[in-house]
Amino acid sequence: MTEQRKIIHVDCDCFYAAVEMLDDPSLREVPIAVGGDGGRGVVTTCNYRARAFGVRSAMPAGEARRLCPGLVFVPLNMARYREVSAQIMAIFRELTEMVEPLSLDEAFLDVSEVTSFHGSATLMARALRERVRQEVGITVSAGVAPNKFLAKIASDWEKPDGLFVIRPDEVLDFVRELPVEKLFGVGVVTARKLHDMGVATCGDLREQRPECLVERFGRQGYRLHQMAMGEDDRPVVVSRDVKSLSVERTFSQDLPDKAACVAVIGELMQELERRLARKGVTKPIHKLFVKVRYSDFSTHTLERVRAQLEAPGSEDFLPLIDELIKDPERPVRLLGLGVRFRDDRSPIQQLRLFE
């Protein structure tokens, strides 16, 4: 019989906003949003005062201001967030080297072999939260469970500033009432298909035969059934090298020409910047690339080495667009932008699963 694992998932509460409030205590008394405040600005994150007005991450700045007229916007300060993140991760690694960062503000810890705190993962999580509060000055929420899937759900159960524990003998009862939307990889489309089958909770999902789920959802069907049973055998992965990052958008109506492609580059660039910020990737950027899929579904990509190593802007992708799109009148179905990182001096990051 496999020995039961002890997994902690730790997630900082509204991390970027928490750092801003740490550095400027006057911001604690007002609703704040971190991100761009221009005409095309987007909320990267916000504090809980702002969330009370309905402000959410990825919301356009204009909409956020309409919901919360007193909203204070603070620009992103990635260097500072990375500094605070490094402090927090160092605290985690004092407890165990088995730390899998998912981004700057969250991580999985496998504490199965840790003997301090009488081997109690609950006491470890409590101590970690207190140390981060005392030494860093922000709050974190934690979930303790026998696997990564459940620990992730548990950390969100009593946010903000919460600790929730799912013990091995509680797993089946806890998972039974979970909505299927809580499962990794279940988005709007998959949830709708499950609902059409009469499946709303993990308890309902358990009643489905695994082979039927595989027939309907492919390999994901087997994983869905496993999670409905509270099972997840993924190990905590200490490190994985991020080699590239990209964004792309498929348009409901084809972009009519090259000029229309150029017009949306700015929006795609903002999305790429948000992904880079969320992943906390700090490697030097070695190449830029663009991807185009035309209305006839033919797909073309182009990449070029960049001379400078600082973060690119929209204008850096325009020469690639010019070179790749030969016919300026040809309709475009999909447009993508991306970066490839240099291998030297590479920090190690772990990409979020199912994203």
Summarize the model shown.
With 355 residues, the chain is an alpha+beta fold.
Give the key terms.
5-stranded mixed sheet, 4-stranded antiparallel sheet, single chain, 21% strand, globular
Strand order of the largest sheet: 5-6-1-7-8
Strand count:
12
Strand content: 15-25%
Element-by-element helix/strand order: EHEEHHEHEEHEHEHHHHHEHEEHE
- How far apart the termini lie comes to 32 Å
Outline the low-pLDDT stretches.
Answer: 345-355
Mean pLDDT: 88
| Portion in helices | 25-40%
Mind explaining what this structure looks like?
The protein has 355 residues and is of the alpha+beta class. Helices cover 37% and strands 21% of the residues. The two termini are 32 Å apart. It has 13 helices and twelve strands. The chain has helices at 15-23, 48-51, 61-67, 78-95, 121-136, 148-155, 171-176, 188-196, 202-206, 210-217, 219-228, 258-279, 314-324; strands at 7-12, 32-35, 43-46, 72-74, 99-103, 106-110, 140-145, 163-165, 244-255, 285-294, 299-305, 332-341.
Secondary-structure blueprint of this entry?
Elements: E1 7-12, H1 15-23, E2 32-35, E3 43-46, H2 48-51, H3 61-67, E4 72-74, H4 78-95, E5 99-103, E6 106-110, H5 121-136, E7 140-145, H6 148-155, E8 163-165, H7 171-176, H8 188-196, H9 202-206, H10 210-217, H11 219-228, E9 244-255, H12 258-279, E10 285-294, E11 299-305, H13 314-324, E12 332-341
Parallel strand pairs: 2-4, 7-8
Antiparallel strand pairs: 1-6, 1-7, 2-3, 5-6, 9-12, 10-11, 10-12
